[in-house]
Amino acid sequence: MIETYLERNGKTAKPFFDELAAPEGVVREHWKKLAHAYDELGLEKMEQRSREISQELRDNGVTYNVYSDPDGINRPWKLDPVPMVFSQQEWENIEKGLVQRAELLNLIIADIYGERRLIKEGFIPFDLVFTHKGFLRQADKIKIPGKFQLIQYSADLVRGPLGKMWVLHDRADAPSGAGYTLENRAAMTRVFPDLIRENQVRKISSYYQTLKNTLTRLALQNKENPRVVLLSPGTANETYFEHAYLASSLGFTLVFGQDLTVSDGYVWLKTLKGLEKVDVIVRRVDDIFCDPLEFLGDSHLGVVGLMEAVRQKKVTIINPLGGRILENPGLMAFLPRLCKHLLNEELILPSVATWWCGHEKEKKYVLDNLPFLIIRSIYRSNENRPYIGSELSKKQIEDLRTEINTRPYLYVAQEVVSFSTTPSLIGNNLEACNAVFRSYIVADMDKEVYHVMPGGLSRSFPTKGEFIISNQSGGISKDTWVLGPSPQSQAKPAVNQPVLRQVKNILPSRTGESLFWLGRYLDRAVINVRLMRIVLKIYNERDDEIHPETNQTLVILLKTLSAVTGTLPGFASADQTRLRQPEKELLSLAVETGRAGTLAQSLQSFLTNGYAVRDRLSLDTWRILDSISEEFELMKENGDDLRKIYHNLDQFIIKLMAFIGLNNDNMTRASSWRLLNIGRFLESSLNTCIILQAALANNVTPEVEKQLMELVLMCNESLVTYRYLYRSTLQLPGVLNLLLVNEDNPKSVAFLIAKIDEHLAHLPDNHKEGGLSPAHKKLLEALTMIRLCDVNKMVPSANANGFGKKELSGFLHHLITLLSQASTIIFESYFSPTQSQYSFVKNNNALPEL
């Protein structure tokens, strides 16, 4: 396998430097042990290991959202089984260069938002800073106490044709990828444990421990027990998995903008118990979206008044707002001189050759060489895509030339660098693919130095010669291995460790709402699956056409299905066409996600709410969710075949019940668990009442009624219980007693209401007037109504005629009304949205003098 790679690389490598193959056609020294292991494994076993890695990532729910991708939130993360590898000697130089660069950028950002001597003395052009959208005047003179202003930093590195490492991009606003790096290493460790051990691959865990320690030490107010939150743009963001994963791994609270509010100068987290003060915000929201009052007025991702809280030193934001100015590629042209001036050192890791068009000489060079350069806007955004000169038509080049002449200070040009290639498993071959390496650096507040992760996130592209490599454009991630023993200093135990304290567990209101609806949609899906499975079983035993007069059992079940799903009129329509030929409607109820109440819509909502609270769910729970998602996709593919859908329903029951069982077993009995169960039990009690009303409150023949009672008991998983309790033929009073009154039966409405009331009693009491809360009153009224009822009186005697079941129907209708009212009160008590925090107030155009 390696010989083939070397031969192929020898023919096609130029002008690329290859990480594995030396120019002489031999394996580089630090790759030899790894290359030998790959040869012993062979292609077949490498492909098997690659599948194991993919399965591992799928099982762990690792996703990356590519915008406008049809897979949506379910797009799997891709990891190459062949890592990017650095020798110990080479890494030492890279590490020194990264620390130096972080220190340099830290001094630059402190000056830009401080005295601005570098601009006054001509080291940085005025236009380069003040025309960049990342320079936020609102952040002027705001400083984090201590040495560091730049807390987190990432650099994208590439190796040029001569083997030298170059910095391609600086990332200082909200650098992403550290969570994926951790998951990549975990997957590689499980699949290649021997290779990691034998090659002495450096561990990366020290970076995350340093990051956690640093963040907890940045609190300005509550230094003993700070509240750190990770601010995410939301579930639709491309890297939402990472936000949830890091929050869960580091023990921080994951929040969205709507979870926070500013009052009395402080930032508060809205929780079920009220407002909790926030000390440190780790943001994954771009700076200009963080405060709609001072930046983008139409942003729904930030918090109104956040900037003022920062000014008053009531909260610390990491990285500080305004850090995006350091991502200005135009700065790269001035870094060598700045490094000499500020650090009295030569720049160890040079940037890719960069020309800022704001200077006449550089602009002329760029305009003369447009077809041979990459042109970028100084401000990175989705709208400002880079131009690769060699791919532009003559007209496009002329249009670009005009644009540069009009606003030269907004553009930079960079050299087209032939990125080095590294082996990647593509298809059935080991191919040489261009690669970019992203490093991660964090300030160590204890040692007052920058700590570099001994590894990082590498990305490769299947096609050689790509100059823009990203996950959005189809790049494949690679684990990054730094070989050699860890420095002794890292092996020493840390001193002055703080006393371990249990952090108060708080639940944001938005998270609580998602858990509540997760429970409701979970039980809604369960009852829909069970009822639809029963309906399909009977439907498959039918004649060619259903006759409402002779197929009463199936007709009532079909109408019950419409009632439970809320897709009325459905099978209850006066037009009996759907009853006679129900297949089209049944298919719609199974797979149509855009129709409210269908099984598909319930499953989709269940998965969406699960995704929103993924930081609260265990890894095993996520594996079950992922399995449900895969089964859901299979069912949609089987959208025109009821027989295949019936098989999917069997699988759904197993997986949904596994989800319920696992969370009952391993979730702590905190508010999150109680809200999930309140949602479940409310939905279950409501659906039981609806099924009883739709299926058993009809005047039918004794034979049909017996069939319906048996099917209703099956739908509620109570048929075996009934037989053990009564040991007689099915009778309606016994069925009603078991499903409504018997508080020893966990499926009975009385048991479920009592449990809802019990869970509510453990939640924060938002009722300030004393006595029972409105929700408790409604639940007590419903429970008392059941306890006082006489099921025998609600059921007509054998000789009764006509409207003997009106009392039963009225009783169930009243019960459904009470439960619905209780549900509304609970929702309004804990989750009802307050007045919008987004006032869309535009800033005064007058800005302070700088």
Rg, Cα atoms, Å? 32 Å
Quick one: biggest sheet?
8 strands, mixed
Helix content: 40-55%
Question: Spans of 5+ residues with little confidence (pLDDT < 50)?
Answer: 489-495, 834-850
Structural class: alpha+beta
Tell me what portion of residues adopts beta-strand conformation: 5-15%
Instruction: Tell me how many strands there are.
Output: 19
Count helical runs: 29
Distance N terminus to C terminus? 62 Å
Shape: elongated
Q: What's the rounded overall pLDDT mean?
A: 88
Please describe what this structure looks like.
This protein is an alpha+beta fold and 850 residues long. The protein is 46% helix and 12% strand. Strands 1, 2, 3, 15, 16, 17, 18 and 19 form an eight-stranded mixed sheet that branches. Strands 5-4-9-10 form a four-stranded parallel sheet, covered by helices on one side. It is elongated.
